[in-house]
Amino acid sequence: MNKLGKKLSISISIAVICIITFSVLLNKYFLPKYYLYKMKGNIEHVTEALGKMDKKEFLNAVPEFERKYHVTIVYEGTKEDINDFNEALREKLYRKQVTLNKFWVTPETLKKVENGQKVNKLYDQGKLKSSFLTSYINKDHMFVLVGLSIAHFNDAAKVINTLYIYVLAIAVVIILLLVWLLTKKMTDPLKKLKEVSEEISRLKFKKVNVRTNDEIEELAESINIMSDKLKQAHEDLLTKNENLKTFMADINHELKTPLSVIQIYAQGLKDGLDDGTYIDTILKQTSNISLLIEDLLNYSRIEKAVFTYERFQLLELFRECLSKYDLECKKKQIHVTVSNKVKGEVWVEADKNKFEMVFNNLISNAIKYTQNQKIDISFSESDDKVLFTIQNGADIDGQKIEKIWEPFYVIEASRNKNISGTGLGLAIVKSILERHHLKFGVKHSEGNILFYIYFNRVP
Ligand SMILES: Nc1ncnc2c1ncn2[C@@H]1O[C@H](COP(=O)(O)OP(=O)(O)OP(=O)(O)O)[C@@H](O)[C@H]1O
Ligand SMILES: [Mg+2]
């Protein structure tokens, strides 16, 4: 038997043994005395009631009392000769089917009763294994006997106690059997849970199927939920780890490229190979490095920054941002349209500076990368949210479109044209929007790229 089974069977067996031992002791020592006390109480009650009655009432009450209290009542006028008197009483008892081995009213008793005293006697009937409990009273010069035959309880108790021992033995066997069955039913699913927990500790996120309809099933459910969550967290951690590795490799690469260019051009300068452009190239590369470092700092700041939320008008902020690019758009001859289908003012609660960064990045990207000299911006209502979209012509591979949110990812075409930056702008946008719990995304179709954000309105 398993540990739980042993513990359970020992404790239940001890409880049963204690209860039966207690019953045995009770039967042996307490019950006989209690039985006698109760019987005496009955007789006492009858004699007291009879004592208060007149003769007529008494004669009528005798059969009723005999029936109700299972007592025998006989009465006899006093006689000169004590032997005759006892004989007469015996005869009357005999007529009431009470045959006694030992019964004798002594002259002293008789005298006491004649003087109005109540006398109680207990006659042991020897081999009959019973006693005759009597109470004598005097009623209108008649000697009244109220008697009750009581079994020797000790013998009955002995029989009951022997039976108890058998019951105890059978009970213990049944308990062991039941406990074995019960613990098997309990420990089998527990074993399963143990196995799954061990698997989980080895980072194998398994699930367990337990149908016991009790707390064990609830525990299994919790373990399954835990397993799912741990699996998710583990996968997230692995992806983050992977992302970090790529990120570090990318930084390395992004820094190395301009540095090696600087190195080559500086060497060229030293060797007197300068055709008048070397210094400009070195300056451009150093400015690239400082831009990259600034972007990196911005990115890491956004990841850690504590956002300060305030209530402001979204469209007002957007117009402010857009107005800064008026001149650049004019210069590049880019046509910008803004359509606003939202009724009333749009109030939001967010970090205003960070939202400004989002708009700046999206607008500057659209200006930088548009291939049709057009940018279409719109605000519209979508359920209880405000949908913002910004679209421009872009001849790119739509399949890898989701990658543009990754740090340092720049589309080959824009890199080739030397117009792309460090590739951190959209990673910053993503981080800000995620931390504001907003739904956003990018779509590409028919030579157009479209970024969208669902803003939450506040009253
Ligand atoms: N509106 C757009 N149209 C076409 N391509 C875009 C657009 N926005 C982003 N991209 C592509 O996604 C890449 C990543 O954009 P992101 O803003 O993250 O970086 P970046 O503009 O290259 O550099 P940074 O913003 O850090 O100066 C860009 O290099 C570009 O190839
Ligand atoms: Mg950008």
From TrEMBL:
Keywords: ATP-binding, Cell membrane, Kinase, Membrane, Nucleotide-binding, Phosphoprotein, Transferase, Transmembrane, Transmembrane helix, Two-component regulatory system. Pfam families: HAMP, HATPase_c, HisKA. Coiled coil: none annotated. Its main location: membrane. Residues 250-459 form the Histidine kinase domain. The keyword ATP-binding applies. This is histidine kinase. Its EC number is 2.7.13.3. It is found in: Cell membrane. GO terms for molecular function: kinase activity. It catalyses: ATP + protein L-histidine = ADP + protein N-phospho-L-histidine. It is a multi-pass membrane protein. Residues 184-235 form the HAMP domain. The keyword Transmembrane helix applies. The chain crosses the membrane at residues 12-31, 163-182. InterPro entries: HAMP_dom (IPR003660), HATPase_C_sf (IPR036890), HATPase_dom (IPR003594), His_kinase_dom (IPR005467), HisK_dim/P_dom (IPR003661), HisK_dim/P_sf (IPR036097), HssS/ArlS-like (IPR050398). PROSITE patterns: HAMP, HIS_KIN. SUPFAM superfamilies: ATPase domain of HSP90 chaperone/DNA topoisomerase II/histidine kinase (SSF55874), HAMP domain-like (SSF158472), Homodimeric domain of signal transducing histidine kinase (SSF47384). It comes from the Bacteria.
